[in-house]
Amino acid sequence: MRERTEILETFPQRLQIVAEKYGERVLSCPANTISFGLTLDGLARPKEKDESDESYIQSIDKEISSFGAMLFSRCVSGTRVIPRAQQKKMGGENFIGFGSSTNNYPHAYMTAACAIGVSIHEIEEFYVRLDKTLKEFRKKSKTSTVNRK
Hints:
4-stranded antiparallel sheet; 3 helices; 47% helix
């Protein structure tokens, strides 16, 4: 518990350093002292001129979700990636903004928790892996954008 308390003192600031490197930001949620959000808007490709909003959002949902898969395959567990306006149909109901607490949250984002039992070494490794995965994802996205044209 003591180690987690120490980590919490610097976690948001260290996360912000990684975020700023990629043009993202840490989301402000002052009532939540365990889980932190980080925008992922810069990971999506730009909207094409003649593309509808719905088509664009569906397309980038897959891109953003694949970032979550990349984190998982690099042994970054416990994060959650939420694409903007993601739609899921369950029990005959269509949920818009699935995974978020609102239908129209204006950002794709990820969450990371600083839970009891996490060590300073694990948090340091988290920053390294998050930074590396963001870099790899951006490189991969630029390559696929060039190949699409």
